[in-house]
Amino acid sequence: MKIYLVGGAVRDKLLGLPVKDRDWVVIGSSPEEMESLGYKPVGRDFPVFLHPQTHEEYALARTERKTGPGYKGFSFHTSADVTLEQDLMRRDITINALAEDENGEIIDLYNGQNDLKSGILRHISPAFIEDPLRVVRVSRFAARFNFTVADETMELMKDLSESGELETLVPDRVWVDFEKALDTHHPTQFFEVLRQCSALKILFPEIDRLFGVPQPPKHHPEIDTGIHTMLVLSQACLLTDDLTVRFAALVHDLGKGTTPKDKLPRHHGHEQRSVKLVKKLCDRYRVPNRYRELALIVAKEHQTCHKINELRADTVAKKLESIDAFRRPDRFEQYLKACEADAKGRTGFEQADYSNAATFRKYYEAAKNIETQSLIDSGLEGIELGNSIRKMRIKAIEAVKSA
Fold first, then answer.
1. Residue 84 in contact with residue 52, Cβ under 8 Å?
2. In this structure, are strands 148-149 and 62-66 parallel, antiparallel, or unpaired?
3. Closest CA to 139 of 201, 203, 193, 176
4. β-strands 106-108, 2-6 pairing
5. How far is CA 364 from the centre of its chain?
6. pLDDT 10s digits, 101-149
7. Which of 258, 329, 349, 393 is most buried when burial is the number of CB atoms within 10 A of its CB?
8. What is the pLDDT of residue 73?
9. What element of type H or E holds 143?
């Protein structure tokens, strides 16, 4: 029996990155032997065991073959005769097919170290095309490492996109890679690679249709709405590590992709169309509520922050209530970040000061800090209390505006 450290742990170690999870492959063993040594079986589809002390995963070496359509259409074979080379061959790309033995020696059977140095994502074998999820995974690795995809691998990804196999992907699995891609320094790479291989229009048509849609050059020198969206996402990454803000920034303008052609380059009413499309995308991928709620607010109300200096005090008070700023101040701050990313996500505006967020925050602070106990002590309640509080908030905002 021989044990090797494999996959991402070896890759990240060679890249000088922190190793979070370690996976091991066991050659020349059996389920019975593993259990006799104290390993706990946990694998449902194939033999995987937890180490009795470290609780890290140890998988028996295996081969696999395609038996049906979709992500789950695979059968696995494991035995003491399966070699390390066979086990590594079933993996997706060369940089994930590295192994390390007990002496720290790297086993590199598929030239993964050279691809690491060159910043290239390359498939190992033609079997790559058997798993449609690999299109999403490779795109995510491109975002994580800012690597390029080898031409021959991109061709296979295009073949997968055209095969209809992407429609069989489990939404939850796609969302896992989507979320991980947002949590990188280069998330725009995820969407750019998906677009290059024609997968974006299948998996995220709401985002894909933004490309090629014009906007008024006066406000958007980059003109193309898809380019603007990628610029906004990049700005969100510079402003915050908060993935909910990054997601909201990405989807805030989805409605511009459905603007009637005879109305272009203006996008009147795109906010409400964006809200509907955000709901559709979130429903399809079962996006967690914390992402969904902020994204809907930003889609509907981003113009409010951009036009804050033009709004009357009563309108500002109404918008603060619509955004739910008084009950969710943390989310109000997230909203302001997303609006700032939108304003800076335009060619030539990347370094521009966005004072609107500070102005909106100042109005919020004034409205939040009004003294309401006297109203409650006077016996007001229900609608009357709410109206009185609103009037006080408007008065506080007016005082700030006139200062």
1. no
2. unpaired
3. 193
4. unpaired
5. 30
6. 999 999 999 999 999 999 999 999 988 998 999 999 999 999 999 999 9
7. 393
8. 47
9. helix 133-145
Tokens of 205: 């048509």
Residue entry with tokens 């450290």: 5
Q: Report the C-alpha gap between 246 and 252 in whole angstroms.
A: 10
- Residue 2: phi and psi, rounded to 5, are -125, 145
CA 10 to chain centroid, in Å, comes to: 25
Q: pLDDT below 70 — which residues of the chain?
A: 45, 65-79
Query: Distances in Å between the alpha carbon of 396 and those of 327, 338, 368?
Result: 18, 26, 9
Q: What amino acid is encoded at 298 in this protein? A: V
124: left (phi over 0), alpha (psi -120 to 50) or beta: alpha
**For every residue of 239-302, which 3-state class applies, written as one string?**
HCCCHHHHHHHHHCCHHHHHCCHHHCCCCCCHHHHHHHHHHHHHHHHCCCHHHHHHHHHHHHHH
CA dihedral 113, 114, 117, 119 (to 10 degrees): -100
Q: List the alpha helices (DSSP H) in 164-269.
A: 171-182, 187-196, 200-203, 205-208, 225-239, 243-251
Tokens describing residue 181: 């891609």
The answer to whether 3 touches 24, Cβ cutoff 8 Å, is: yes
Tell me, what's the pLDDT at 383? 85
The partner residues of 26 in beta bridges, in order of sequence, read 3, 60
pLDDT recorded at residue 269? 95
CA dist 194 and 139 (Å) reads 6
Nearest to 2 by CA among 96, 111, 105: 105
Q: How far separated are the first and last CA of the chain, in Å rounded?
A: 78
Half-sphere exposure of 330 (CA within 13 A, CB side): 4
- Domains contained in the chain, CATH given: 1-118 (3.30.460.10), 204-402 (no CATH)
Q: 270 CB contacts (<8 Å, ≥6 apart)?
A: 253, 255, 256, 259
Please name every residue paired with 78 in a beta bridge, in sequence order, or none if there are none.
62
SS3 state of residue 50? strand
Give the alpha-carbon dihedral of 196, 199, 205, 209, to 10 degrees: 20
User: CB burial class (10 A; 0-12, 13-18, 19+) of residue 133?
Assistant: buried
Dig out the tokens for 127 from the structure: 């079997």
**Confidence (pLDDT) at 69:** 55
